[in-house]
Amino acid sequence: MIKNSYDILKERGFVNQSTDEAGIKQLLSKQKVNFYIGFDPTASSLHVGSLVGLMAAAHLQNQGHKPIILVGGGTGLVGDPSGKDKARPIMNRQEINKNALALKKQISKIINFKDNRAVLANNADWLTKLNYIEFLRDFGTHFSVNRLLNSESVKIRLEKGLSFLEFNYQLLQAYDFWHLFKTKNCVLQLGGSDQWGNIVAGVELVRRLEEKEAYGITIPLITTSDGKKMGKTEKGAVWLDAKLTSPYEYYQFWINTDDADTIKFLLLFTFLPVEEIEKLKKLKGSEIKKAKEILAFEATKILHGEKEAKKAADASAALFGNENKKAGSVPTIAINKNEFRQGIPASKLFVLAGLAKSSGEAQRLIKQGGGYLNEKRLDNSNLLITESDFENGEIMLRAGKKKYQKITLR
RNA sequence: GCGCAGGUGGCGGAGCGGUCAAUCGCAUGUGACUGUAAAUCACACGCCCUAGUGGCUACGGGGGUUCGAAUCCCUCCCUGCGCACCA
To answer: Using the CB atom, is residue A10 less than 7 Å from strand B?
Structure first.
């Protein structure tokens, strides 16, 4: 029996709520569906938080449906108040366009844009052309302020203050859905659970204007088992851009998954068949590490390719296993030879390597016993590091238990 | 526009003339314990250095009072609440 696309999503944990479960199931089983999911171009890279939506979209694409990836170039100019207790900084056009371009590159690692199997859209293309009066007359009439006031996202902000600008966000997103429905025959929207209100607004707008049914599915906000938002690491957010988070760091992020989250993440962030993941469930105690290795490898493979994933896995095994600490793809920086002529104080070197934000922090680190040079614990943050400390042209720095940085000479 | 209440470190939130780089909680980091997990315990947590009863910058911005200001005064900006205005 062929599984229904919706059931696939549901069984892997991608579904938080949906507007009409039976309707969606029927829709997805009888035809190839165009659906959309939006991303905010407020940063130049997506992070693992956005990955859930992309994975959901990828699963649907694998089932033959067609994703429309919407970059919120227009809505980004407004700022979504959902789930925020503060107004977002308003961004200018250029920045947003630059970000949108960068995002596409990352998204195309997961979604296949070849042969028109997926399309990228930017709502700036239509939102910026809207005429205020026309918009109010044609669409404003379909929105009830009473309802908006009752929505959770607005309620929260009412206590702290909400500008009219942000208040309008929902109308714009609803308009997006309608626009895509009209022009691209898009009948389904995916979004984070904080988008529920916005998605429903779109569904209703389509119903009112077109007297046709559109659907929405929200994806749960992925939290770690202790209730925190996922996606943070020692160095901050985990980005999808390899320049910001190297494949090795990305791999490490997944390896460091909490035991309790391992299975959940395998389902969400890998394409492994559910049956296979079920088997991993049986692992107990320190064996869970094996499941995490699979998770880390698969997740890294999806984003950075098999070769990089292997390299990261090897590096990880070398550094944390008992073999000698030689590693291939540990983040490496090259420092000019001349710098070492007089020697660089250990604390400075940690800052240069990006393992500490300030030399005060580095000094603290070393004082507390968390600074290592070539696997030897440093006891003096003023120790001058010179060329003679290099072994085979490199130095391995370590901060704490898990953060490594290799230094080479230039 | 008028009145009221506020604006303090990543966040929450004390302090209300000296002993404040600022109590406390959360978050974070390091160490111990472990399985590169969780929990727990300990320590740290503005920046700089020649590392000291050292220097510098910081309690929305600017100015002032004072030997001395996060703390008092003036002014500007911002936020919330109430009133007014408009619809």
So the answer is: no
- Structural domains in chain A (count): 3
The residue that minimises its CA distance to C1' of B51 is A382
Please answer whether residues A404 and A330 qualify as being in contact, where contact means their C-beta atoms are separated by less than 8 angstroms: yes
Instruction: Provide the greatest CA pair distance for chain A.
Output: 77
Looking at residue A11, its pLDDT comes to: 94
* A4 φ, ψ (degrees, to nearest 5): -75, 140
> Which of A184, A219, A254 represents a domain boundary (last residue)?
A219
A138, A168 contact by CB (below 8 A): no
> What CATH number does residue A124 fall under?
3.40.50.620
Q: Is residue A224 part of a domain?
A: no
* A336 and A209 co-located in one domain: no
Cβ proximity of A406 and A330 under 8 Å: yes
| Whole-number Å distance between alpha carbons of A292 and A273 | 16
A13 and A69 part of one domain: yes
pTM of the model: 0.88
Residue ending a domain, choose from A188, A219, A250:
A219
Note the CA–C1' distance, A192 to B33, in angstroms: 39
**Average pLDDT of the segment spanning A46-50:** 85
Hits for CB < 7 Å against strand B across A residues 131-170 = 158-162
Nucleotides of chain B in contact with protein CB (under 7 A) are 28-32, 34-39, 43-51, 79-81
State residue A283's pLDDT score.
Answer: 92
Query: In this structure, is residue A245 part of a structural domain?
Result: yes
Give residue A293's domain range: 236-320
Residue-wise DSSP of A60-78: HHHTT-EEEEEE-TTGGGT
